[in-house]
Amino acid sequence: MRGLTNKQDAVRRALAREFITMVFRGENNKLSGIKEYADRFGVGAGTVQGALADLKAAGAVSLKACGAQGTYIESADRSRLLEMCEYDIFIGLLPLDSSLCVKGMATGIFEAFTEYRLPIHILFARGSRNRAGILLREKCDFVVMSLCAYSYMHKNARDERRDLCSIGTISGYPSEHVFITKRDAPFSMAETQVAYDAFSYDQIAIMESLGKQHNRYGECLGVQLPELVRRGEVESALVERKSLGCADDFDVHPIEHLPAQMQRDLGESVVVVRGSDHNLSDLLSLVLTSGLVCQVQREILEEKRIVTY
């Protein structure tokens, strides 16, 4: 991204990012007053006027003054306005794409960004707790986790919740969690030690709900859990069934007695962003919560279209 040379550059970029969301929404294209912008950005009125003049000179927007009614965006060149936003490629971080559910979600997100001609790079990382940390370190623009994980984070994880917020649900989420053991190994909810991924808020919440959050295995890597069971290094593991793949080596034990609300929340995905960047939050909310992601995911699951991202 090009470095900002002065305050006017910064204001021009901020205005462009606000205007692009207004243009995409196609409604209420009325601008705030010069003084309001100046107060918001902590600059003088002349700086705001200069930034608006830059946007007009670049052909990004055409403004229409309507006297006491205010000033409106009369027309906009979306491509040029996006250039003035100075967004680099957007980076979204999703769960590991080991299930068709996540692949459908990724395809839907890719198509939603493509519809708005916005560049998107989709990456995958294990564990909602891990993804939240990456977002806080500003290594991506948004992450996806289950509604259950988001709710747990906001109730229990002080560091992660301080600047992260949800912009809404977008699709289904892999939610069939089960316990696995080696073939014919004994299993008891009360006595069997269960390994789980401590970087997954979903799994932490499930284990706490079942009163099994304390075990002797410590923090395990989610992707290693089946292999640890296969080698006999752990008695049992908590895994998401659709990401397990072939289960021929295991006995699969369904989880019983989870609260109904938790079961519902495990199956819904939410997009989480840094709450301090309001313009980016507004833009991502517009792009991702229209229902397109859910529709595409459903068609992928029904094998009506191919995976592309």
UniProtKB/TrEMBL annotation:
Residues 77-309 form the Uncharacterised protein YhfZ C-terminal domain. Residues 29-73 form the YhfZ helix-turn-helix domain. It holds the Pfam family YhfZ_C. Gene3D superfamilies: Periplasmic binding protein-like II, Winged helix-like DNA-binding domain superfamily/Winged helix DNA-binding domain. It comes from the Bacteria. This is HTH gntR-type domain-containing protein. The lineage of its organism: Bacteria, Bacillati, Bacillota, Clostridia, Eubacteriales.
